């Protein structure tokens, strides 16, 4: 059995009388691509914020990267990476400056940074652009770069919040190549998306509705369980 | 110019599942008059050419989609049509009025829902609606039948500040406000971006109902599967139109020989296929990979034999019907 990198037991989060997360229970394993789906307002963002150590649960036990979310929040943050479509990199800084900035935050030594930066730029084939402002880069590049920076400190888990919104279909698929490579390296990928075809690329998928996890299994089992021909149908059956 | 109800086909086309994409909306019959006409429009922002020589026509009563990723030029084109931007080159008309010279007239007959929520966050739901009705010298009561189906869903929250609404409710309020003066043409900039699959489906059902009431609708979306819900679409990329047609024709005109391939280890499958000298393209499409061979001369059995030699198990290789996304990707590569 692989190591559990996220353990959630009876997680409850209330805002006043509103229950955003209603007794969530799930585990995520090392190297897994875990799809975290649900309708708008189902409670995904609330749960993600808790897992990232940005918000405390009302009750329940949560461990991320082996660390307790209540008492070891800083250790949690050191062991995770985060990327969303909205916030990724600083537009008015260059590629190299962004890498230096994030390295500084995560305590990566200049020597290590230089070595890793070289590999990163080479992998993305953007060595000649390292002094270009992020603003000037095509969206597809930005997203790949933002993802690479989010895992620059070799976190145990990377959280991707709708990483592929708005990109063209080829770039979207190339981004998933990066996700697979990352999972192969043993980094857990925790991803939200509104593209139901992308749900098929996950090892396991959870679907939230009204603050609860209504379904959690492999895409194949979910399709069998709900008598659906694709994940879109599964989602419609659960979330409607 | 008055709001004449234009025949858009009395039957509502059934909504193909967003994501399923199996059924198509038929073209609008009996229409011939252009509600929107775009002739060789170009627009640049400093060094960025946002829209490059775009021409298209949207017929009265049509539900027309601008389909493309960020940076395709969808928003810029819409802003030109909404008279909010002046084109560098070309001409365009909305409801017969020129977008530069006739902007005052156009603004009376169009409804616009921009990509960013742009209502007054510190006014209530009801106040926003009254405000927009008043600006257009009408009342909520006068056109209530048009927005009833949509507004009834947010009416329980009519005293709530717009800024405190959920995303789905904001969207419904914005649509209500865009409709309150009974526009002839409704322009919606990415109304379903970031919206979940269920809400997207509901939103398209609302659009179909509005179309049935005779409103011409121009809608943009980055979700390729939503193309099938439009009568006609323009596929756009980097400021250019790649193609314009009905979704059905676009798919029919796809001439490549396309295979769907699946095996137990999908990631290794995609890597192996890309390393195969006879593969032209291999992309993930949900449960399967969509694969084309070099010059379309590769048989299914050749892929199968190659993959069996690579020890793939639970292998499936079969001919596959293309979708809009296959068409778009092929056009991108041309």
Stated plainly, the CATH topology of the largest domain in chain B is called Rossmann fold
Number of strands of chain A: 10
Based on Cα principal axes, name the global outline of chain A.
Answer: globular
The H-and-E topology of chain A, N to C, reads as: EEEHEEHEHHHEHEHEEHH
Percent of residues in β-strands of chain A: 25-35%
Low-confidence stretches of chain B: 1-22
Helices and strands of chain B, in order, run as: EEEHEEHEHHHEHEEEHEHEEHEH
> Helicity level of chain A, as a percent range?
25-40%
β-sheet strand percentage of chain B: 25-35%
Order of adjacent strands in the largest pleated sheet of chain A: 6-7-8-3-9-10
What is the CA-atom radius of gyration of chain A, in angstroms?
Answer: 18 Å
Biggest sheet record of chain A? 6 strands, mixed
Query: What is the highest CATH level, the class of the largest domain in chain B?
Result: Alpha Beta
Rounded mean pLDDT of chain B is 90
Number of domains of chain B: 2
Descriptive report:
- The complex is a heterodimer of chains A (240) and B (334).
- With 240 residues, chain A is α/β, with parallel strands linked by helices.
- Chain A has a domain at 89-154.
- Chain A has nine helices and ten strands.
- Chain A has helices spanning 44-51, 73-78, 95-105, 110-123, 139-150, 169-184, 196-199, 219-225, 231-239; strands spanning 4-15, 18-29, 33-38, 59-64, 67-68, 80-84, 157-161, 188-192, 204-209, 212-217.
- A six-stranded mixed sheet of chain A has the order 6-7-8-3-9-10.
- In chain A, a hairpin with a 2-residue loop joins strand 4 and strand 5 (67-68).
- Chain B has 334 residues and is an alpha/beta fold.
- Chain B folds into two domains: 34-251, Rossmann fold (3-Layer(aba) Sandwich), CATH 3.40.50.300; 259-333, Alpha-Beta Plaits.
- Chain B has helices at residues 74-81, 103-109, 125-135, 144-151, 167-179, 197-212, 247-252, 266-275, 300-309, 324-333; strands spanning 34-45, 48-59, 63-67, 89-94, 97-98, 110-113, 185-188, 216-221, 232-237, 240-245, 259-262, 279-285, 288-293, 316-319.
- Classes of the chains: A alpha/beta (240), B alpha/beta (334).
- Chains A and B meet through helix 6 and helix 9 of A and helix 6, helix 8, strand 12 and helix 10 of B.
């Amino acid at each position: 059995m692989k190591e559990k990198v996220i353990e959630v037991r009876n997680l409850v989060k209330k805002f006043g009388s509103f229950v955003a997360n209603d007794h969530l229970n799930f585990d995520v394993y090392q190297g897994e691509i875990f799809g975290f789906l649900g309708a708008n307002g189902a409670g995904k963002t609330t749960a993600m914020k808790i897992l990232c150590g940005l918000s405390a649960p009302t009750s329940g036990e949560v461990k991320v990267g082996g660390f307790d979310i209540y008492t070891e929040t800083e250790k949690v943050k050191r062991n995770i990476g985060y990327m969303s479509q909205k916030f990724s990199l600083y537009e008015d800084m260059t590629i190299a400056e962004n890498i230096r900035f994030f390295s500084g935050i995560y305590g990566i030594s200049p020597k290590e940074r230089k070595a890793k930066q070289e590999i990163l730029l080479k992998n993305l084939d953007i060595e000649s652009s390292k002094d270009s402002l992020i603003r000037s880069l095509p969206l597809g590049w930005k997203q790949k770069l933002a993802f690479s920076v989010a895992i620059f400190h070799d976190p145990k888990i990377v959280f991707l919040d709708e990483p592929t919104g708005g990109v063209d279909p080829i770039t979207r698929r190339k981004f998933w190549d990066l996700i697979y490579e990352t999972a192969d390296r043993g980094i857990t990928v925790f991803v939200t998306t509104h593209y139901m075809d992308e749900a098929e690329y996950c090892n396991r998928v959870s679907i939230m509705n009204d603050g609860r996890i209504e379904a959690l299994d492999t895409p194949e089992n979910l399709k069998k369980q709900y008598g659906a021909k694709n994940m879109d149908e599964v989602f419609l059956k659960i979330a409607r | 110019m008055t709001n004449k109800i234009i025949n858009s086909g009395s039957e509502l086309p059934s909504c193909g599942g967003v994501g399923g994409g199996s059924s198509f909306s038929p073209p609008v019959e009996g229409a011939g008059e252009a509600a929107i006409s775009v002739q060789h429009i170009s627009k640049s922002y400093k060094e960025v050419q946002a829209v490059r020589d775009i021409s298209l026509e949207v017929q009265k009563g049509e539900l027309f989609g601008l389909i493309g990723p960020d940076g395709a030029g969808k928003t810029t084109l819409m802003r030109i049509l909404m008279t909010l931007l002046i084109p560098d080159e070309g001409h365009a008309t909305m409801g017969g009025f020129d977008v530069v010279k006739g902007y005052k007239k156009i603004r009376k007959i169009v409804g616009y829902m921009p990509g960013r929520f742009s209502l007054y966050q510190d006014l209530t739901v009801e106040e926003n609606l009254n405000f927009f009705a008043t600006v257009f010298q009408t009342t909520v009561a006068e056109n209530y039948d048009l927005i009833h189906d949509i507004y009834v869903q947010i009416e329980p929250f009519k005293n709530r500040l717009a800024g405190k609404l959920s995303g789905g409710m904001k969207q419904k309020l914005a649509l209500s406000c865009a409709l309150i003066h009974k526009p002839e043409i409704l322009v919606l900039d990415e109304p379903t971006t970031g919206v979940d699959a269920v809400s997207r489906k509901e939103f398209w059902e609302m659009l179909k109902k509005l179309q049935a009431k005779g409103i011409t609708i121009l809608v943009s979306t980055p979700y390729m599967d939503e193309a099938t819900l439009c009568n006609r679409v323009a596929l756009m990329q980097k400021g250019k139109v790649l193609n314009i047609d009905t979704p059905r024709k676009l798919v029919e005109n796809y001439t490549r020989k396309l295979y769907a391939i699946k095996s137990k280890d999908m990631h290794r499958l995609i890597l192996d296929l890309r390393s195969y000298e006879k593969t032209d393209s291999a992309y993930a499409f949900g449960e399967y990979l969509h694969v084309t061979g070099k010059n379309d001369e590769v048989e299914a059995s050749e892929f199968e034999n190659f993959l069996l030699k690579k020890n793939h198990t639970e292998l499936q290789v079969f001919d596959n019907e293309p979708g809009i996304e296959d068409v778009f990707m092929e056009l991108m590569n041309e």
